[in-house]
Every structure is written in structure tokens, then in C-alpha cells.
Amino acid sequence: MDAYLTAIAIITAIYVLLALGLNLQYGLTGLINFGHVGFFCIGAYTTAILSEHGVPLVVTFPLAAAFAMAAAWPLGLVSIRLREDYFAIVSLGFSEVVRLVATSERWLTNGVQGIAGIPKLFAGWLTGAAQSYAVLGLLVVFNILAILAMLRIVRSPFGRMIEAIRDNEEAVKALGKDPAVFKIQVLVLGAALAGLAGAVYAHYIGYISPEQFLPLITFQIWMAIIMGGVGRISGALVGSAILMLFLEGSRFLRDVMPFISEVSMASVRLGAVGLALILFTMYRPQGLMGDFTRK
């Protein structure tokens, strides 16, 4: 049971990193990014490919974030010319392009067979439960650093500017500021967190394939920030925990619904998470950590 709970905590911490990045993009700036999993995928494949060629992890992790940032920059340029709803569609298409590249470019990614044997974190130093605890500790450090950076951003002139863009972009333009520059910077910063999350995920799981980076991951992160509270740093943490509670807790529906087949149980679990999201939207639209004075 301890190993199971530790594994859940590790995946939750990875989701927190993803949620913090998306919260920066949408919660603070208003960028509707439906392609967040694309940056997650880029980070995972970057560190997996580089580590296969003997590059040390202390180098592959920063490069995973850097490659995700590099991919976000041209996507940010596209966002300048598109309305929010059209950018959402383009970003979703971007994530699918990334996944298709990972599927088709076998010389680089090994295609649908994926990349196996990715070095485990702290391999050679720790084994078993100690290794899992060390990975969890590393993720806690990454999350603390990300939260501190987010707090610094929120309290800075840059943070006030992106919140102004979220609230009234036309007013920002009237003041002589260029929202496009800030949007690109925010998209790049959020992508860096997703790339870092992908790097940790790849080395923790030890195997990656294109099927692990479906758009469903993006929408699960959206569920997390909506349930936790859009625009709230604490909402990213609480929302990710709630999401994982529903995803993992719904596994035990089998115990109370033995008449449902194993094949159908996946749909039931997804339906349970969807129902939770609907209830949150109806009765707590500002999220669990949102403004308690607003409905």
C-alpha cells in the first residue's frame, strides 16, 4: 500500500507542475491552451532521447524545459493573430502534430514502440522505496520553486500586466502596451514547466510512447485548475489532488458495481470524473480555492 500511495503522490506532483503552467497561461493571462500535453510530450522525449546517448540527467532536464520553450515560441507568434477560441483550436492541433511526429519519426522516437529503458532517477544510488521517496522529494522541490516563481510573478509589474490582459486586453492596448509580447512570454514559461514535468515523468515511468500523450491529459489538467480555482496557485495544488482522488478513487467503483465489465469500467471512471466537474461548475464555479464571496 505504501508503494501505491507513493506512486499516486508522484503522479499528483507531476500534475501539479502541469497545472501551475496552465494556470499561468489561462488563469492569470487568459490564454486558452488546449495543447499543453504537447509540451509535456516534448520534455519527455527530449530527456529520453538524450539520456539514451549518455547525456547526464543534470543536462537533459534543463534541455527538456528549453526544447518545450522553443516549441512554444512559434505557437506564441501564432497567438498574436488569432482570437482566443481559434488559438485554442490551433494549440490542440499543435499537440496532435507533436504526437504524430513522435509516432512517425521512428529514426528518432522509435515510433509506436516507444522508448524503453529510460534511466531511472537516482539509479545506482537508491533502490526500492527509497528511490521513490527521492523522486517525490525532487518533485516537491521543483513544485516549491515553481510556486515561489509564480508568487514573484504575480506580485511583480509583469504579473499585474498579464492579469490586466486577462481582464481587458483592449484597455491594455489603449495604454500603449503590446499584449502579444506578454502572451508569448507566458506561453513559453508555462511550456517550460510542462517540459520539466515531462522529463520527470519519463525517468520515473522508464518507458514512453505516443499513446501516453493524448489530448485527454490536457483536459485532465483543465479539470484540475477548474475544480481547484482558476487563477489561484493554491487551486493548482488542490485541484490536482482532487483530480487524482477521483481518478484513482473511481478504480474502487468495481467493488460496488461488480456487474460492470472491466472494459466498461474505464468509461464509468471517466464519467465519474466528468460528473464531479459538472457538479463543481454548477455549485462551485469559482473552484474550491476561488473567491468565496463570488458565485
Entry keywords:
295 residues; 1% strand; single chain; two-stranded antiparallel ribbon; 75% helix; mainly alpha
Summarize, please.
The protein has 295 residues and is mostly helical.
Describe the protein in words.
It is globular and about 55 Å long. It has helices at 2-27, 36-52, 57-80, 84-104, 106-109, 128-154, 157-167, 169-174, 179-205, 215-228, 233-249, 253-256, 262-283; strands spanning 115-116, 207-208. 75% of the residues lie in helices and 1% in strands. The chain contains 13 helices and two strands, in the order αααααβααααβαααα. The protein has a two-stranded antiparallel ribbon with strand order 1-2. The mean pLDDT is 89. With 295 residues, it is an all-alpha fold.
Describe the secondary structure blueprint for this structure.
Blueprint: H1 2-27, H2 36-52, H3 57-80, H4 84-104, H5 106-109, E1 115-116, H6 128-154, H7 157-167, H8 169-174, H9 179-205, E2 207-208, H10 215-228, H11 233-249, H12 253-256, H13 262-283
Antiparallel strand pairs: 1-2
Helix pairs in contact: 1-6, 1-9, 1-10, 1-11, 2-3, 2-4, 2-9, 3-9, 7-9, 10-11
